[in-house]
Amino acid sequence: MENVLPKNWIEVQLIDLLEVFQTGVRPKGGVQGILEGIPSLGGEHLDPDGGFNFKSLRYIPVDFANGLKRGRIEKYDILIVKDGATTGKTSFVDENFPFAESYVNEHLFICRPNKLVNAKYLFYFMRSEKGQARIMSNFAGAAQGGINLKFASNTLISLPPIVEQEQIVSKLDGIFDQIAKIKDRIRKIDQLGQSLFESIFYNSTGTGKLSDHLTERKTRVGQDWDSYPKIGVSRKHGIIDLATGEKKNFDNYKVVKPGDFIYNTMRVNIGSIAIYDGKVDAITSPDYVVFSTNAISQYLLLNYLKSSNGSINISSVSKGSVRSRLYFKSLITIPFPFLTEQQHEFAEKSLLWMNKNIKRLKRMADFLNQNIAPSILEKACNGKLLAQVGSGGEGKTRDIS
């Protein structure tokens, strides 16, 4: 049924829609240790949402770039990962791309659309489930295999008339713009929380130790473990259901009470710490640390331990040469400011409000990203987002989304 197209749509080989199709060049000796020059992008710089991140950006020497005849990135290019675990990941170079001159490395393809296709439509099609399936049908090799230059001749693109392409792009841009606005609101609330956090600490009257406020919980569940939910913690999701594999006995697991903190001793430095907000007691692996607090704001403490200053203090007291761990006896030596009861109460209310709003917005963004956006994208690339009407049909459309 995939080959049944709406009226006036055609299937076109990707290569016939490209003005330029090429990959990058790897400098002799690679780019390790080159701290300035011309930006060189690889698969790690393409985001799953079709944009870019420039963490750990690498560079090629200016004289090397001046001699290159291929691999330079231009506005409206579509970049595709050609090998490895993220083969097929696709990003679009729009007006906000920050570099006047940059290149792809040997792990990326540049697809530069010609005048026969709207560049953004082609990008959206290649990002869709249908487009990704067609791209990945060219994958060859083991886990670290990939796609080669032949994929552009072997990949079909479902192409509507240009007017309909533009209408589809306008509709999809609106949806993804809403997602971007939600993410921006999350970022702004995060910034507001950080400012509040810093202002409270700035107005403190001195510094004490966390030992004044924390009590470790070491209670083991014993033989009644079967009636307790089993929980763990992750940096991204906070409290999670604990994966136990084929383990049969949990007598030695620790009891976690509502309001307790729980953290992964080897990953707390990257934020694997959370407050258990369940309604009933739970249990967790004996490898985790569980503790309760007194006379301080829980959310102020959580934000502190997840902050850059908190991370520095955690690293300074962690133990172990190969895989460092933060044991409770080391955690309680971390400095913590003296704050009034009113400051703790204000921090608790404010940070709790922010956390609730961020969670709500993240749920909304996740729903749009994981459900609505893929569904709309799939409709668009199968000709179901805009239904043609009339006998001639071309350019006459009706929105049915």
Question: Which features characterize this protein?
Answer:
Adenine-n6-DNA-methyltransferase TaqI, Chain A, domain 2, 9 helices, 4-stranded antiparallel β-sheet, 21 strands, disordered C terminus, 401 residues, alpha+beta
Task: Describe the protein's architecture and organization.
The protein is α+β, with helices and mostly antiparallel strands. Among the domains are: 10-159, Adenine-n6-DNA-methyltransferase TaqI, Chain A, domain 2 (Alpha-Beta Complex); 214-308, no CATH class. The chain has helices spanning 62-66, 119-127, 129-136, 151-154, 162-202, 298-306, 308-317, 328-331, 341-381; strands at 10-13, 18-23, 38-41, 58-60, 78-81, 90-92, 103-104, 108-113, 156-159, 207-209, 214-216, 231-234, 238-241, 254-256, 261-264, 273-275, 282-284, 288-293, 335-337, 386-388, 397-399. The strands form 8 sheets. It has a 4-stranded antiparallel beta sheet with strand order 2-8-5-6, covered by helices on one side. The protein has a 4-stranded antiparallel beta sheet with strand order 11-18-15-16, with helices on one face. β20 (386-388) and β21 (397-399) form a beta hairpin. α2 crosses α3 (129-136), α6 (298-306) crosses α7 and α6 crosses α9. The two termini are 21 Å apart. 31% of the residues are buried.
Terminus-to-terminus distance: 21 Å
Globular, elongated, flat, extended or rod-shaped: what is the shape?
Answer: elongated
Based on CA atoms alone, the radius of gyration comes out at 26 Å
Number of strands: 21
Question: What structural class should be given to the helix and strand makeup?
Answer: alpha+beta
Helix content: 25-40%
Give the rounded overall mean pLDDT: 87
Please identify the top-level CATH class of the domain at 10-159: Alpha Beta
Q: Going across the major beta sheet, what is the strand order?
A: 2-8-5-6
Sheet-strand content, in percent, reads: 15-25%
Quickly count the helices: 9
Largest sheet geometry: 4 strands, antiparallel
Helix and strand element order: EEEEHEEEEHHHEHEEEEEEEEEHHHEHEE
Q: CATH homologous superfamily of the domain at 10-159, by name? A: DNA methylase specificity domains
Low-confidence stretches: 388-401
CATH-defined fold name of the domain at 10-159:
Adenine-n6-DNA-methyltransferase TaqI, Chain A, domain 2
Which CATH architecture of the domain at 10-159 is right? Answer: Alpha-Beta Complex
